[in-house]
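quick q for whoever's on today - can somebody do inverse folding on this one?? i tried earlier but teh output was garbage lol. tokens:
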């Protein structure tokens, strides 16, 4: 699986920055991963060109970890980009260009925390796919 995460703004909060770096390192043991930071939400789609686009949005579909793994299995062998907006959110055009609107929680998450939760879930999904015991239902 070839993954790309594109987020508005580099994490400034230490816990988020360090967590994203840690999970990026872990993810790369299981899949190709690129992480890109852009200045504005309008710059997200160009960085996701040629990829399936998963847009994180509180109005998106909620999945269990296993359910999201099954969804990603349908795209096995494809390039998948996860788009994380900033504090201002997205334009409707970004939502309309998505292959999937994904909600990480019915709660509204601060964007740096959402990025960190996404990275942990990608790692969890990849370890589950590999049969690694990290995921315990």
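ok took a stab at it. sequence:
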């Amino acid at each position: 699986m070839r993954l790309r995460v594109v987020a508005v703004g580099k994490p400034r909060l230490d816990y988020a920055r360090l967590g994203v770096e840690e999970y990026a390192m872990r993810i790369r043991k299981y899949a190709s991963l690129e992480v890109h930071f852009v200045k504005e939400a309008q710059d997200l789609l160009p960085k996701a060109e040629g990829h399936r686009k998963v847009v994180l949005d509180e109005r998106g579909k909620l999945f269990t970890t296993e359910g999201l793994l099954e969804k990603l299995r349908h795209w096995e062998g494809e390039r998948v980009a996860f788009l994380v907006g900033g504090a201002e959110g997205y334009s409707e055009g970004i939502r309309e260009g998505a292959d999937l609107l994904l909600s990480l929680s019915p709660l509204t998450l601060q964007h740096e925390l959402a990025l960190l939760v996404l990275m942990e879930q990608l790692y969890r999904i990849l370890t589950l796919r590999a049969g690694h015991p990290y995921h315990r239902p």
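fwiw The mean pLDDT is 95. also The first strand starts at residue 2 and ends at 8. so keep that in mind when u check it
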